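Student:
Attend to each token:
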Amino acid sequence: MKTIAAILALVFVFISSEASAIDNQSHDWYFKKSKDHAPATTEPEFEQMLKKYGGYFIGDTDKKELYVTFDNGYENGYTIQVLDVLKREKVPAAFFVTGYYLEDQPDLIKRMVKEGHIVGNHSWNHPDMTKIPDERVKKELKRVKEEYTRITGDKTMLYLRPPRGVFSERSLAISRDEGYINVFWSLAYKDWETNRQKGSQYAYDSIMKQVHPGAILLLHSVSKDNAEALESVIKDLKKEGYTFKSLDELVFKRTLPSLLAP
């Protein structure tokens, strides 16, 4: 995966735009949940913006491939369990981390990298990036990458999950110009409220009900329910013919034709 990531990083070095002149209307990410395992959808306007700025919310809907992602704002004691399950089941994941998480959990960051997972940018302070100046957006992203590099020695950080799922065309443009691929999601449920966990069966049912080919799953690592349900979810989805892929594989698959074009 490191080779794929290196190639993708070179591709995005050559992309640029004038972000400050672009529309900054704020949007909350929204998707229409899958029914009967048909692909989830989103607003056509959102799809157009993601296409324009190289973002993703879903993979190839013709293939039973899944992409597991976690948002890690802070540690609640369950990430070790999550990593243990992913290791046993040989499933790659992406962990989108904040500055607080990097400073608080450097050993877990090192483990994520060592075990082949992607560590993505979730901003330093988790702000609404549509409400802060261009330079502050860049600083939020730069601080995360620098601290990640200091901890791991890895200088490659390609993926961004906008804090709170809030974005604008301007924020997409700025982050794209900074070398990031925005990654949203097509499967999620209300799992982040730590005082309102409903049990592992609820987590299992919520995921299995929505799953569909090409799904990018958003899970929160603070959820006890997710940690306890994850192994059953992965095993049962494998039985249904799903395979688990890395975001690098998804992006490389879409980028390869342009790399080969004359």
